[in-house]
Amino acid sequence: MAKKGREKNTINKAKHSKLIAQKKNKQKSKSDDRKARLKAIVDLAKAKKASES
């Protein structure tokens, strides 16, 4: 028989999906920031090396 009333766990699933999305977005932004900082350091080192030569 089909269950009567509200569906089970829909609220918890929605909260979980929201939290997991926040976590993934936070990790992605940290990763992007780190890549940008490393790229800036590498570019600065290349420029410094080119100016010395």
Q: Which properties best describe this structure?
A:
single chain, 53 residues, rod-shaped
Task: State the end-to-end distance.
Answer: 81 Å
Mean pLDDT: 91
The number of distinct helices, counting runs of at least 4 residues, comes to 1
Largest sheet composition: none
N to C succession of SSEs: H
Low-pLDDT windows of residues: none
Q: Tell me the strand percentage band.
A: under 5%
Write down the Rg: 24 Å
Cα shape: rod-shaped
Structural class: mainly alpha
Number of strands: 0
Instruction: Give the fraction of residues assigned to helices.
Output: over 70%
Topology:
Blueprint: H1 10-52
Task: Give an overview of the whole structure.
The protein is mainly α. The protein is 81% helix and 0% strand. The protein has 1 helix and no strands. It has one helix spanning 10-52. The longest helix is centred in the middle third of the chain and has 43 residues, at 10-52. The radius of gyration is 24 Å and the shape is rod-shaped. It starts with 9 loop residues before the first helix and ends with a helix.
